[in-house]
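Reply to dn_fold:

You asked what the input looked like. This is it:
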Amino acid sequence: MRSVFLMLILCAAVVLSCENKVNSSAPEAFNKEPRLLTTLPSGYEFVDAVFSDAGFQVASVLQKDGKAFMSINSVLSPMYDNVRSPVFHDGSGQYAFVARKGAKECVVLNGREGEFYDRIERPLITSEARLVYAAKRHDKWFIISGDKVSQAFDSPRPELYASPDGRRLAFIEQNSAAKKLNLRVCSSKLKDCSRGREYDEISDVFSNPSGSHLAYRVVKDGKQAVVRFDFRQPGAVEHEGRWYELVGNFQLSNNGEHAAFFGRRMGKHYLVTARDEWPCADYNMLFDISVSDKGGVLYTGVITDSIILSLDGKVVADRRESIDNLTFSGDSELFLFVAGPCPLTPRDKPVEFAYLVIDGHESKKYDKIVGPLFSPDNARVVFRARTEGRRFVVVANTAGQILREHSPYEAIWGFKFSPDGKYVGYGVRNGRELWWKAEKL
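and this is what came back:
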């Protein structure tokens, strides 16, 4: 049970020491062959790893004598006080990460340090191969896009997003005099900017996987609403929902066209979508939400002493100790969830188990299940599992039957489906080696 409703979800021109232009090339194909990407150098403590989407690159965060290093494809960076946020562009093989020296931060692009600022946020390499990020100097923020630098602006935090084609950027700015916030949208060259509506607060910004839509909670005159922004349309086109006393746990569908949340009006709680509003008076508590690409809504809550799952107001599963990872298939016809022991239930000894429920069919039990996803053809489900300390990737059919348990590893970092849906790839650690593994479904 991940969250509980009622807990709010809630320089002029700067000369860069290197020009943030990224050479563009045609994207490489998905890596369908197992590949050793790096061997961790001896004498360094391994902290974390990030694999690129297509599986051709890996960033390893390392520590030694209290200092931090970034290893990109076995090339070790200089020593820093901290490193974070590695991003890749698989088509050109280029990369960027944030590095800190003392009280200053910069973006390291392809091994070259950029201008130092007080703070760096949200580095991205867009689909058109342009490095963009938000940078703070003193009390002002700037957007860096390639070799262009925006005018200084105020922001409580610049949530920086790029459209799927990389040609437009969106970020939150503040009207200092009026203390109002709005979403500002500019071209990637930081021209032709437009401003959205002004609100007292903008928070909890979500993007769908392709980045075509944003959704965020807004506050105005003591009321709250969810606003959706469509990046596919020119200008700052915001779709403002109904207003409530309180908005919580809102979610966006994968295609970005639907949103749902729990809202409170006149002391009563509702499940809210763009089309419907269901009263939730019978619930003691409300938990998670998932929205399909067709607008269907799964949500969980407690009635008396039972955790139940409902679909569009109709109960579809009940008397489960816990229900997590609500997930729709790509065609919105099937859904799954992970069930297991309730972490709030007192027990003499800790109990850990998890099983997948797909269209009502239960899988075998594992110690833990992470990140289940339907395959692109919606015929299989892939997830990470852990049993007796072993971590491995599992493929199941939609009847909950396990089709394949792949080899176990010390650690596994997510998984990606190939564009044709025939392969699944993921990063693994074996001792000091970091591999990309590709498995045919």
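The CA atoms of residues 424 and 439 lie 5 Å apart.
Hope that clears it up.
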